[in-house]
C-alpha cells in the first residue's frame, strides 16, 4: 500500500498536528510505502515572510524526525525542493478546467497568491 500525506508549515506544530497527521504517518512507516512531505507551497497562502516560512519548514522537519519519522523507512521531502511540483501544476492548469477542479476533493490554487 502507498500512503501520501503532507503538513502545511503555516505556524508552530501543535498537538492537533501530532494526533491529526504526524502520529499516523510515523505509525504508517511499517504499513506500506510512505510518502510524507512538508507542503511549503500551500503555506504561501498564509505565510508571506520568507524567513518565517523557512523557520516553520525547518521546525516541521525537526519535529517529524524527533517524533519518529525514519528517513530509511519513508520518503520525506519539502514540496518546494521538487521543481516538478510547479511544472506539473503549470501543465495541468493549462489542460484542466475550473469545473473539473471544483469537482475534485482538493486542489492547490497558486493563482490567488
How would you describe this structure to a colleague?
Helix content is 46%, strand content 15%. It has helices at residues 15-28, 40-43, 50-66, 84-95, 98-102, and strands spanning 2-7, 33-38, 74-78. A three-stranded parallel beta sheet has the order 1-2-3. The longest helix is centred in the middle third of the chain and has 17 residues, at 50-66.
Which SSEs are present, and which pair or pack?
Elements: E1 2-7, H1 15-28, E2 33-38, H2 40-43, H3 50-66, E3 74-78, H4 84-95, H5 98-102
Parallel strand pairs: 1-2, 2-3
Oligomer type: single chain
Named at the architecture level, the CATH assignment of the largest domain is 3-Layer(aba) Sandwich
First-residue to last-residue Cα separation: 34 Å
CATH fold field value of the largest domain: Rossmann fold
Strand order of the largest sheet: 1-2-3
**Class of the largest domain, according to the CATH hierarchy?**
Alpha Beta
Task: State the main characteristics.
113 residues, alpha/beta, Rossmann fold, 2 domains, 3-stranded parallel sheet, 5 helices
Compose a concise summary of this entry.
This protein has 113 residues and is of the alpha/beta class. The chain contains 5 helices and 3 strands, in the order βαβααβαα. It folds into 2 domains: 2-81, 3-Layer(aba) Sandwich (Rossmann fold); 83-113, no CATH class.
Amino acid at each position: 500500500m502507498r500512503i501520501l500525506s503532507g503538513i502545511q508549515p503555516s505556524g508552530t506544530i501543535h498537538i492537533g498536528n501530532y494526533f491529526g497527521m504526524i502520529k499516523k504517518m510515523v505509525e504508517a512507516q511499517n504499513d506500506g510505502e510512505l510518502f510524507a512531505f512538508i507542503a511549503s507551497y500551500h503555506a504561501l497562502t498564509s505565510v508571506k515572510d520568507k524567513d518565517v516560512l523557512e523557520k516553520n519548514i525547518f521546525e516541521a522537519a525537526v519535529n517529524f524526525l524527533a517524533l519518529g519519522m525514519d528517513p530509511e523507512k519513508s520518503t520525506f521531502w519539502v514540496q518546494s525542493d521538487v521543481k516538478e511540483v510547479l511544472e506539473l501544476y503549470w501543465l495541468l492548469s493549462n489542460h484542466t478546467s475550473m469545473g473539473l477542479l471544483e469537482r475534485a476533493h482538493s486542489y492547490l490554487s497558486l493563482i490567488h497568491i
